[in-house]
Design a protein that fits this description.
Layout (H helix, E strand, L loop, with lengths): L3 E6 L5 H9 L3 E6 L4 E3 L4 E3 L2 H8 L4 E2 L7 H8 L5 E5 L7 H4 L6 E5 L7 E2 L2 H7 L4 E8 L9 E8 L6 H24 L15 E2 L15 H10 L6 E5 L2 E11 L10 E3 L6 E4 L4 E9 L5 E2 H7 L12
Parallel strand pairs: 1-2, 1-6, 2-5, 6-7, 8-11
Antiparallel strand pairs: 3-4, 7-9, 9-10, 12-13, 13-16, 14-15, 15-16, 16-17
Length: about 325
């Protein structure tokens, strides 16, 4: 069967999914991705990872600022696609576009829907301490990740997973699930299953300020934040007026007579921890403003007055 597909995606998560479609010889009529954005100190325009891959394969590229304008809807209609595959595109599809495709619009979402609809499902799974997440292929409607599910598959969350490592695994996981799903869907061998809206959990947008550590939280909660906010926005605190990123940590049970936020040596082996609202957060890797990443041993050797100090929120 001749099948014209429009692919829509933007970040690295979407790249293995696009590459799978190319490898499986689907005809990619067009790739939609978000406009180039200024980035870095020079604020030069940077293309999305999906655009870079599309250029490598000489695929047609569209970068609208919205798909709601009549002109953009007409442009899309001219590609005459049979199916849309979307993965972390970043824009909602209006009803006129949703209704154009014979085989609908498939979204590859990195959670077990209806859990973690929305913008940050991977972070949300880590913040909640889930032991399992997964991929969902669903048929898009006008809601936020609310359409009927075609296929789902679970994936264990490793104890040391960060958003980066889990995103890498889920992108491959979702691509493989989509590879199996498309032929079944085209052959009318899947009955879409409506989501239970009563079970829905939403994941909101994360901003830089969310990375600020509240040391009155539990060591377990803070350690989850450290993993969830890697690589962005990073978990951070302040010491002597400088921003200090906590890049790797682990929680242990225990208490201290010292104030919350105080740094101390926890045992004879030299582990360095911070007093939290519940338990101790051991620090393994960190980075102070203006310097490179260091192990805790390197840091204490360079800043011996770190022990006994107190970390703050500003």
């Amino acid at each position: 069967m001749s099948m014209r597909i429009a692919f829509m995606g933007t970040p690295l998560f979407a790249v293995p999914i696009l590459e799978m479609l190319v490898e499986d010889d689907y005809e990619i009529a067009v790739v939609y991705t978000q406009p180039d954005r200024p980035a870095g100190r020079g604020r030069s325009e940077i293309s999305s990872p999906v655009k870079q891959v599309a250029k490598k394969y000489d695929l047609p590229i569209c970068q609208p600022i919205s798909l709601r304008r009549e002109s953009e809807i007409r442009t899309f209609a001219e590609f005459k696609v049979d199916l849309v595959v979307l993965a972390a595109f970043g824009f909602f599809l209006p009803k006129p576009i949703l209704e154009l495709q014979k085989f609908g619009n498939l979204n590859v979402h990195p959670s077990l829907l209806p859990f973690y609809r929305g913008a940050s499902p991977i972070m949300s799974a880590l913040l909640r301490g889930d032991e399992e997440t997964g991929s969902s292929i669903f048929l898009m409607d006008e809601g936020m990740d609310s359409g009927p599910i075609l296929t789902q598959r679970s994936l264990p969350v490793a104890a040391n997973d960060t958003t980066k490592t889990l995103t890498d695994r889920l992108s491959q996981h979702g691509a493989e699930l989509l590879r199996e799903t498309i032929p079944l869907w085209l052959d009318n061998k899947i009955d879409p299953t409506p989501q239970d809206a009563n079970q829905a959990i939403y994941s909101g947008l994360v901003n830089k300020a969310d990375g600020l550590i509240d040391w009155s939280d539990s060591a377990m909660a803070i350690s989850r934040e450290v993993r969830a906010f890697d690589p962005w926005p990073s978990s951070f605190t302040y010491w002597e007026g400088k921003r200090l990123k906590i890049l790797k940590s682990s929680p242990i049970e225990g208490n201290s007579q010292s104030e919350i936020g105080t740094i101390f040596s926890t045992n004879a082996s030299g582990d360095i921890g911070v007093v939290t609202g519940d338990g101790i957060l051991l620090i393994d890797k960190l980075q102070i403003e203006g310097r490179g990443i260091m192990s805790i041993d390197q840091f204490v050797n360079g800043y011996p007055n770190f022990l006994g100090a107190k970390l703050t929120q500003k």
